[in-house]
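**Fold tokens**
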Amino acid sequence: MIHSLETIIAGFLLRVVQIVVESSLYVLIGLLTAGALRSMVGPERLRRFVGTGRWTGPVRAWITATTLLPVCALGVLPVIRELRRAGVYRPAILTFALAAPMLNPISLIYGVSYLGPWVLAILIAGAFVVSVGVGVIWSYVRPSDSLEETQEDAGQVPAIGLRRLAAAGVHAAREATGPTFRDVAAGILGAALISSLLSGPYLASSMNAGDPLAIPRMMVVAPLSYLTPDQGVAIVPEMLKFRQSAGAMFVLIALGVGMSLGHLSWVARTSGGRAALLWLSLLVGTTLSVAYAVDSLIPPVGTTNDDNDHFGVLANSAENYHGLQGLTKGLAAYSENIGAFRWLTCGSLGVLIVAGFVLRSKGERGKFEAFLEVPESRSPDEVGVVSSPVWNRPLPARLISTVGACGMLVIVCAGTYAYFPSPTEAFRDMQIIKADFYGELGAASMSAPLHHLDLWDRQAIKLPTGALIRLAGPDAEARRLTEELRKGIHQLREATEGSRRDEARLLFVRIQSVYDRCRKAYGIH
């Protein structure tokens, strides 16, 4: 643990900056989604889509969250606020609030790429039990809180065209500076505080498989922490690699990725402090039960190594910069790795927040309701029926269906690109996997080397497709060498399974020659 007050303060400030940058894209997506839901979908459609079934409502919310919306634990907050405003079934909202960050298109794509089918299936099943289970239990414990008493008029949707698009932007901007801003700020400050008190080596050494306190320790750390979906899924294979608790790994996904202090802030603000404590108790109890089940289903692999840094994103980042004096060095080092896209999303979110404050200063003219009014020159029957200009015309149903189909095609293409990495990325990963395999070949148990052989073969089999979809299709020689490499990996696996270490080392040297020729065949030198 960290004891220096200066280091704690510096780590807190540095982590605040990191979370703001890392969450900016997801928060922006959440705000724009909330604006689109209010101005283009409307309360009645939302309520009808989710339904009020004690089981079907949470299940529908879980399916929607895991397939459509890529947000984090902070980015989901404006969306659940909009769902509550629309009077959506409360247990379904609570399920959505957990499921969207925990398992969404981004995390599923990463999971398919880096986790085996068995581990991924267990994580998906566990996430379903936790998020849907909390919603269903809530409907029994607090039946009076299931349906919202205040529901917006079903007709409160702006006229079609630019007026509707403007209304969506206005609502997103106002949400960025309203109660959602406070909830997001609570999530950021809570995560920064817990991070400032932790050190990476402490986390790495306290989550090992077989340690009975690994899961309880993670239960204390994860609820206040913040991880983006891609960060969470990236940590999972590292925990497996270093023989750490699978139960603690699930807790990190369920509570570290799935929730934040902003969730508690939202529940407390909308239902009261007791309701927030009840919800947290249900979530912790359900997660703890599933975590111990996951711990028994996923056997530990890899080799214990406390000298690793995959928990660095959860720990104090200023401990290497000597307190407050090194804070500027830490900020400078972090800013060098942000990238142009992150700067763009941060800037866009900043513009949206400024616009929100400006709109709030305009009084009634800056409210969403101002865009519900029908201009005097047009009758209510003519709302949305415009002959010109073209951008104000109603969209035909077939066009909307076509756009939706194209959107799904884009998601499929993105998933394909993520699942089949480029040959450069695949060989880079294989280089690390090879080193890990050979280093662990002398271990008492063969589970770790076999695990790395599975990873090696999984990357090798993706080589031809990864090159093909990037219009750099492999020639016959590259395909032949890929098959020869996979054949050598299978022979190496047979020797490793039989604990024939000397034979495995000889085979490894022979495979290295095939591996080098395969790299050159794919144009990597």
